[in-house]
Amino acid sequence: ARTLLAGIIAGLMGVGGGIVLGPMMLQLGMLPQVSSATTGTMVLLTSSCAATGFILSGVAPLHHSIVFGIVTMLGGCLGKHAFSHLVKKHGCASLIVLLLGGMIGLSMLAVATTGTLDLRRKLLAGTPVEEVFAFHSLCAA
Q1: One GO CC annotation, please (predicted)?
Q2: Quick one: angle between helices 32-57 and 62-90, nearest 10?
């Protein structure tokens, strides 16, 4: 029931399954390998649907999408095999948990940095503080 609720919240917020459901499944006692495979599948499905939507709407050029898709698949396969080798070599499945935590930490740092730089840019451009911190439509560009 908790994972269903987390999945609904992650889907509504556009967060992706890896950030919300991965740690929750680990907290519920799932093996790191199972949690990683499950969240990887969810991220694959949601990102594939989003990419298809962007391609069909004409926002993402097809040839760029194909190149980025191939590079992403190769990187994912290489990373999976390299990480599987490390887990087998050291016999330590907690490496998966450390990787998951590290990725979430780097994502948080990237979001905070991007937000801070955007805030700085707006303030230096002379945008009134009230407008910078005001609530805006989520659908506006």
Answers
A1: membrane
A2: 170
**Do 7 and 43 sit in the same domain of this protein?**
yes
| pLDDT tens-digit map of 25-50 | 888 898 888 887 888 787 788 788 88
Task: Indicate the number of domains in the chain.
Answer: 3
Q: Give the dihedral sign, CA 56/60/66/72.
A: negative
- Alpha-carbon distance 75 to 107, whole Å? 18
Asked if pLDDT for residue 3 goes beyond 80, the answer is no
pTM above 0.70, yes or no: no
Helix count (H) and strand count (E) of the chain? Answer: 6, 0
> What separation in angstroms does the CA of 47 have from each of 1, 53, 73, 92, 95?
24, 10, 12, 29, 25
Which is more confident, 83 or 70?
70
Look at the alpha carbons of 130, 116, 6, 136 in this order and tell me if their dihedral is positive or negative. positive
Instruction: Identify the domain containing residue 114 by its residue range.
Output: 92-140
Provide the CA 125 distance to its chain's centre, in angstroms: 31
Q: Do 7 and 21 contact (CB within 8 A), yes or no?
A: yes
